[in-house]
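Dataset card, provenance and construction

Sequences and ligand SMILES were collected as paired inputs. For each pair, a complete structure of the chain with the small molecule in place was predicted and serialized as structure tokens. The example below shows a pair involving 2-acetamido-2-deoxy-beta-D-glucopyranose. Curators did not alter the output after generation; any descriptive sentences attached to a record were derived from the structure itself.
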Amino acid sequence: MIRIKFRFFVLALLFVLSSATHPTTGSLSSSPDQINYNDYIEVFRDDFNGQQLNTSYWRVADNYTKSSEQTNYIYTKDNVKVKDGNLVISAQRQSVDIQGKKYQFTGGFLDSNSTAKISFQFNNYTEARIRIPDYEDMDLSEPGFIAFPFNYESWPHPTEFQIMKYSIFDTVNVYPYIYKSFIYYQWIDNGDCRIQYRSPNKKLDFSQYHTYGMLLKENEVTYYIDGIAYFSYIAGDPSNSSNIGCRIRIPKEDIFLGFDYVVQSTLKKPKEMYVDYVRILKPKQKQ
Ligand SMILES: *[C@@H]1O[C@H](CO)[C@@H](O)[C@H](O)[C@H]1NC(C)=O
Ligand SMILES: *[C@@H]1O[C@H](CO)[C@@H](O)[C@H](O)[C@H]1NC(C)=O
Ligand SMILES: *[C@@H]1O[C@H](CO)[C@@H](O)[C@H](O)[C@H]1NC(C)=O
Ligand SMILES: *[C@@H]1O[C@H](CO)[C@@H](O)[C@H](O)[C@H]1NC(C)=O
Ligand SMILES: CC(=O)N[C@H]1CO[C@H](CO)[C@@H](O)[C@@H]1O
């Protein structure tokens, strides 16, 4: 009797140890609660220690508006620099006249769809070590670390993985600093069903560097802050947007990385996001 109970206990313990406990879109996650870096080998890294950005890795937006929603600001290459071992992406309040159009603000945008085509696949893990500006009431914008598949057309049609998105408002908790991750997509074969799922907001001390990571699997994507799982999106789970019938899907394509500084009209003083490094890891053993 005692022996049976003990076996049960051991089994239960093993189950607890092997199952993930971090929040998900509903189903159980198969990704670890904490990244074990010893399980991985680094396959790409940019420390931004050179005099300038390596343009075989990075493609910098030069007088570019990403979507039709983007009316008050434009991405210019002045807002992407390398400084003191960091990639620095900025946002500024400045009137510019570009190709006959006037904008009140400028921001920075870059992605890895350059000549080296740095991308990652299922079971790779990517992370960037990032610091963003101190909070100032009513003087905010939205820096981000993003990833998107090769078939990217224009927003809002493709998938977008928001690995780190800093947002200005959390009306429920009144947090001045908010972290969230989300995936967003609209597939042609899903009709006009816009799929969106946002993680709950989280408060962090953004004035410190943190690593923001993503582990991509065939059936789920998990976001990590400082190596700790924050939220998993499991394929097949329903979206938490108001559209019924949409389920989370993970694109089966190579994924590019990018950084952006989305400008809100609340921006007053110039803002800078610092990226110490970005890297891609692959598992030591096939998973
Ligand atoms: C940029 O990266 C490529 C590929 O690793 C490398 O061959 C090249 O030397 C780098 N360029 C600079 C300026 O560091
Ligand atoms: C971007 O706009 C600036 C200001 O109008 C101009 O000097 C520059 O040549 C433009 N760059 C490109 C690639 O069009
Ligand atoms: C990547 O660059 C190629 C060549 O410029 C382009 O055709 C493709 O649309 C780009 N993909 C993304 C995701 O931006
Ligand atoms: C669902 O989405 C909303 C925003 O659309 C968000 O505020 C909320 O936290 C999400 N719920 C969960 C459980 O992630
Ligand atoms: C950059 C990159 O894609 N790295 C690796 C991702 O993982 C696969 C195997 O899982 C490797 O073959 C890639 O080199």
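Derived descriptions for this record:
Residues 47 and 277 are 4 Å apart (CA to CA).
The pocket of 2-acetamido-2-deoxy-beta-D-glucopyranose (ligand 2) is lined by residues 62-63, 98 (CB under 6 Å).
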